[in-house]
Each structure stands twice: as structure tokens, then as C-alpha cells.
Amino acid sequence: MSYSGGPMTEAMYYVLLALMRPNHGYQLMHAIGEVSRGRMQMGPGTLYGVLSRMQKDGLITLTNNDGRRKTYEITVDGKAALLNEYHRLQAVLEDSQLLEEGTDND
């Protein structure tokens, strides 16, 4: 795996989350909107750029290419990276509790 394990972009995070079920591009754009509850809308140019990068990083794999549609699936390394990012984001939220505690004292 060539992914560095650093913080992911929001686009990468939601693509991996949406690929917990194999999908092709058009379905994937819709699935990203669903898992992000509408906060992330991704166009084809952005999506295919992210897919290409994540495929090179070993986070996803192309499972089917019938000429019209390419179906992608998250890899074991991709699941591990997604879980690491999830834990990183949880820690960020926990750290933010200091902000809430600081506003209580004002």
C-alpha cells in the first residue's frame, strides 16, 4: 500500500465509505450523496480523479470493466485506512470539547 496514512480529504473519506458496497461511477456519485446526507455532492471529474488516486494507493480495486461501466470495491488496505481516518476524526471531535468547555467559563 502506498497510501501514507495521513489525513484524508473529505472526498476520499466519502468515496471509501460509499464503496463499502461495490459501485460504478454513476451509482457511486449517488451513494456518496446518501452516506454524506447530502453534504457531499461529487461531479464526475472530481470522482474519477479521486478514484484514480485511490486505486494507485491500493485503497480500492477495479472489479469489473465491461467497457461502459467500471465497478470499484474497497480493499482490505482501504478498509484499514477508512477505519484509521474514522478514529482520527473521533479524536479531533474529542479534542474540540475543550472549545465547548472554554465557552462555558465566559
Automatic annotation (TrEMBL):
Annotated Transcription regulator PadR N-terminal domain residues: 20-82
Check the UniProt entry and state the signal peptide residues, or none.
none
Which residue stretches, if any, does this entry annotate as coiled coil? none
Q: Which InterPro entries match?
A: Metal_resp_DNA-bind_regulator (IPR052509), Tscrpt_reg_PadR_N (IPR005149), WH-like_DNA-bd_sf (IPR036388), WH_DNA-bd_sf (IPR036390)
What protein name is recorded for this chain?
PadR family transcriptional regulator
Q: Which organism is it from?
A: Solibacillus palustris
